[in-house]
Amino acid sequence: MDSLIITVAPVGAETSRKDNPALPVTPEEIADEAAKCAEKGASIIHLHVRDAAGEATQSKAVFEKTMELIKKKSNIIIQASTGGAAWMTAKERLRPLELTPEMATLTTGTVNFGSEIFSNSIPMVEEFAKMMSERGIKPEIEVFDVGMIQTALMLVKKGILRTPLHFDFVMGVPGGIPGEARHLVHLVDSLPAGSTWSVAGIGRFELPLAMMAIVMGGHIRVGFEDNVYYGKGVLADSNAQLVERIARLAGEMGRKVATPEEARGILGLTR
């Protein structure tokens, strides 16, 4: 079984300091949080950024500054979000790819996202995938429901993506696949041979799905984008606290936590 890759999603587009006062929002705060999370066992940062008012943005300049600061402080893999926020245009969402991060997210379908619609038409998905392929960016296929796996396989058949693919199952979003054990098993069983996968449980689903991933050979995403609590009604002190818990539990269950370099090897990153 591969070493466990822990991804941290410290910011997101929806979470605010009203949800958790410890949310990092400035480039400096995000870079500091990335370094602390790397020290505790995270090997990937799933990166969203905020503007000067603390609102979600896909500004190339803000991404560039944040990425530069992260690279100065740690060797963590930077995975840029092309999801942005549900209300953003495709052009806005593509901007971070111009910086050629090692990884980026690729959502392969449209999903109801609470009261909003997170729109990802097939032409849009193909456009995003082609840009990642042209720039040598490793896509993480973001799956909110099982049909999105089939769309990713269609992209392989068209020659836009190449196997092996890496998937992230985002589970528990209202409107997406529920965060239940049986659904995780179904998603994993639906993957093509040779794939790697991680799971991001939203809210109360974060910890139980993480425990399942440890024993099933998958990988894990945690962080304030998905969950701001450490326990029921108890806010987490930091993203690093959530990472540290997963690393500790993995160790107690006999699974080694991957360093960034080990994660690069597992995912086939070449730069």
Characterise this structure.
This protein is of the alpha/beta class and 271 residues long. It has one domain (6-267): Aldolase class I (TIM Barrel, Alpha-Beta Barrel), CATH 3.20.20. The protein has nine helices and 14 strands. The strands form four sheets. An eight-stranded parallel barrel has the order 1-2-5-6-9-10-11-12, surrounded by eight helices. Strands 3-4 form a two-stranded antiparallel sheet. Strand 10, helix 6 (181-189) and strand 11 (196-201) form a beta-alpha-beta unit. It is globular, with a radius of gyration of 17 Å. The model has no long low-confidence stretch (mean pLDDT 96).
Counting DSSP E segments of at least 2 residues, the number of strands comes to 14
Query: Helix tally?
Result: 9
SSE series:
EHEEEHEHEEEHEHEHEHEEEHH
Radius of gyration: 17 Å
Indicate the CATH topology. TIM Barrel
How big a fraction of the residues is strand?
Answer: 15-25%
Oligomer: single chain
User: On the 0-100 scale, what is the average pLDDT?
Assistant: 96
Shape: globular
Unreliable runs: none
| Proportion in helices | 25-40%
CATH architecture: Alpha-Beta Barrel
* N-C termini distance: 24 Å
Could you say which structural class the secondary elements and strand pairing correspond to? alpha/beta
Relevant terms:
TIM Barrel; 9 helices; alpha/beta; single chain; eight-stranded parallel beta barrel; 271 residues; 37% helix; two-stranded antiparallel sheet
Layout of helices and strands, plus pairs?
Layout: E1 6-8, H1 27-40, E2 44-47, E3 49-50, E4 56-57, H2 60-73, E5 77-80, H3 90-94, E6 103-107, E7 111-113, E8 116-118, H4 122-135, E9 138-143, H5 147-157, E10 166-171, H6 181-189, E11 196-201, H7 206-216, E12 219-222, E13 229-231, E14 234-235, H8 239-252, H9 260-267
Parallel strand pairs: 1-2, 1-12, 2-5, 5-6, 6-9, 9-10, 10-11, 11-12
Antiparallel strand pairs: 3-4, 7-8, 13-14
Helix pairs in contact: 1-2, 1-8
